[in-house]
Amino acid sequence: MTANSQMVTIKGTRDGLTLRLNDQCSFDSILEELYDKLSVNGVDDGQPMIRVTIQLGKRYLTMDQKEMLKRIIREKQKLVVEHIESDVITKEEAFAWKENSEITPIVRTIRSGQLIEVKGDLLLLGDVNPGGKVIATGNIFIIGHLRGIAHAGFDGNEEAVISASYMKPNQLRIAGQLSRAPDQDAEGVYIECGFIDKQDDAIRISPLQDVLKQKPDLVSFERRMLNG
């Protein structure tokens, strides 16, 4: 069998191993070749667990099929599957992705005891008063005062950010992390942004322009606004 006709290609990377699965053959053939290859290339018991990324190409697998892949890899080697990547998704997954990537614009003041919750990004033109709360699965952008509670990345997205013209919240939450605003008062009106600093693994507040340098993907927000 030539290299081009291999059904399973294993490549070492800085982060572990990448398994590329041929998307033009049957799933049973993939399992058979994967089983054989992992049986030949052993790993010593003393070595640490190796992280694995599986690339499916234009192949879609059910949850049961993914579990079969993971089980074979776990049983044959000291490997742990960290990611399974595919170029295709179901209609349901596409609709969920669309819903979670949309921007919901709201023009109002969120008063004490009121709650706004959206899927995707929230663009609020107004204030969040003390005792008010806004929640989004994506980013939160507030053109106004944030004095209440804001929770971005509600479904676990640690890349989400919270931005406000005046940042003095009761509480900030991003994914599962929690923080409060700094003690110092803001001078004038400028955009501040709360985000998870990967170095400190904690929520930090910085001017929006500084955050954009670290998170260039936020420019997609502008593109979606212009195209929407």
UniProtKB/TrEMBL annotation:
Domain Septum site-determining protein MinC N-terminal: 8-84
Septum formation inhibitor MinC C-terminal domain mapped to chain residues: 108-205
Domain of life: Bacteria
Cell cycle among keywords: yes
Keyword annotations: Cell cycle, Cell division, Septation
SUPFAM superfamilies to which the protein is assigned, alphabetical: Cell-division inhibitor MinC, C-terminal domain (SSF63848)
InterPro entries linked: CAP/MinC_C, MinC, MinC_C_sf, MinC_N_1, Septum_form_inhib_MinC_C
Gene3D superfamilies, per database record: 2.160.20.70, 3.30.160.540
Function comment: Cell division inhibitor that blocks the formation of polar Z ring septums. Rapidly oscillates between the poles of the cell to destabilize FtsZ filaments that have formed before they mature into polar Z rings. Prevents FtsZ polymerization.
Quaternary structure and interacting proteins, as annotated: Interacts with MinD and FtsZ.
PANTHER family the UniProt entry points to: SEPTUM SITE-DETERMINING PROTEIN MINC
NCBIfam families hit by this protein: minC
Family named by the database record: Belongs to the MinC family.
Protein name, UniProt field: Probable septum site-determining protein MinC
Organism: Halobacillus seohaensis
